[in-house]
């Protein structure tokens, strides 16, 4: 298998800086460039986790649509705390599950 990190670069510090607005943390770059307006703090992570659990209930714990018997590779696009990706990795042990992490894409399994 080829190196998934080949050709990647470190995430520039400008994307990691945050600012506080009304007591909540936001990504400074996203606010300044009007690209994303949701907080990036622990409270938001908790909200996303609760949302994940609600969607699991709504969709009868189905993780992938349409259902697949044996997915080989899955990429989590990074909207949340990787709960979905972790569940996919547990449910499909032979599947490689990739998530954005620290400016790179990391393999969960």
How much strand?
A: 15-25%
Q: What profile does the largest beta sheet have?
A: 3 strands, mixed
The number of helical runs is 3
Order of helices and strands: EEHHEHEE
Q: Helix content range of the residues, please?
A: 25-40%
**Spatial extent as radius of gyration:** 16 Å
How many β-strands, per DSSP?
5
Overall, the morphology is flat
Q: What are the segments in which pLDDT stays under 50 over at least 5 consecutive residues? A: none
Mean model confidence by pLDDT:
87
Alpha-beta classification: alpha+beta
N-to-C span: 14 Å
Strand order within the widest beta sheet: 3-4-5
Features:
three-stranded mixed beta sheet; alpha+beta
Structural features, described:
This protein is an alpha+beta fold. 28% of the residues lie in helices and 19% in strands. It has three helices and five strands. It has helices at residues 28-32, 42-58, 83-91, and strands spanning 18-21, 24-27, 73-75, 96-101, 104-107. Strands 3-4-5 form a three-stranded mixed sheet, with helices on one face. Strands 1-2 form a two-stranded antiparallel ribbon. A hairpin with a 2-residue loop joins strand 1 and strand 2. The longest helix is centred in the middle third of the chain and has 17 residues, at 42-58. The relative contact order is 0.14.
């Amino acid at each position: 298998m080829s190196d998934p990190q080949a050709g990647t670069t470190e995430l520039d510090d400008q994307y990691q800086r945050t600012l506080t607005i009304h007591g909540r943390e936001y990504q400074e770059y996203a606010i300044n460039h009007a690209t994303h307006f949701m907080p990036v703090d622990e409270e938001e992570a908790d909200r996303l986790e609760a949302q994940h659990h609600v969607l699991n209930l709504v969709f009868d714990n189905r993780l992938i649509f349409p259902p697949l018997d044996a997915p080989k590779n899955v990429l989590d696009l990074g909207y949340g705390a990787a709960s979905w990706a972790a569940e996919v990795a547990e449910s499909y042990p032979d599947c490689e599950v990739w998530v954005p992490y620290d400016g790179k894409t990391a393999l969960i399994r």
